[in-house]
Amino acid sequence: MHHDKTILKHPLSVRIFHYLLILSFLPLAVTGVILYFKPLSESAMNLTMQIHVVCGVVLTIDAVAFFLIGFNRVVLFIKRVFYVSMNDVKWFAVLGGYPQKILLRQKVAVPPMGKYNSGQKLFGICVLIGGTVLIFSGWVLWAFPHLAPREAVAMMGTLHTFFAWVLTLFLLVHLFLGIYMFEDFKSMILHGKIPYEEAREMSPLWVEKELIPISENKS
Amino acid sequence: MEKQNYQYIENPLHVTRREFITIGGIVVAFLALPAVWIKTVTSSNNNYIKARTKGLYQDDEKSAVRVSHANKSVARYYQEFGGEPLGHLSHELLHTRYINRTKGLS
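Structure tokens for the assembled complex are given below, as produced in the milestone run.
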């Protein structure tokens, strides 16, 4: 019945936010790892730090702009990622069926999910808290270390490193599964839409409870 | 504008007004915490700077010689040995050169 029908999953504002996030966070993660292990010459390390700072500023502008312009979507995102039920425990028990599907080519029963599955919710919480801490501590470490007490600057450095590693390692999983779920990948990178049938299989609760049909000719 | 060729969107009313105010309030409160911290740190820094400034002014008031060119020892150095201020001999003896010592610290 709903064949060929599509849902607008990622509106343009979210996609622009995500494009800038890709452009800023990917270089930030790479340069961050280089800054952590210091494998390059002094001048190359300086250049790495400059790239890290520029991308950090881009990430900050992106996050603050989206927070102010799309505050309703931020609230919606927080509501979704912090809503936890027994389904999430059951989802983590089978890890969403992904290892079975990818490694063993077996399909296991997965509890019904909303727009985000439990793994995405956990990632969302890490991005929300970790991203905020990274941006704040990054600015203190780069621009205002002389204004903060020495102990506070040291604590900011530790927090910055900790959350940077959490998000960088999570990013690897996010990149893999993001591309593996190719319809969702195209949706976020290209047009924002997702086939109705795919959404009903992946996010049945979202389709059932949160979607409304729109008239065909309405622009 | 996006060309609309989709049939479903998210219900914009999925977040109720009460939920919006609650979640929004919590987020703003959490973001205000660093602001409070920054204000505390800055004001404590300012208190230190103010106390230091006050101490320096007190020292100045107590001092008989408040500027270097009124210092008799310095004046005697130039009269008897160094010649004129910024002269060749004074430059050789008193000028310091910058050396990067930060590498030794890390």
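Chain B touches chain A through 24 residues (CB under 8 Å). Residues 18 and 24 of chain B are 10 Å apart (CA to CA). Further analysis is deferred to the final report.
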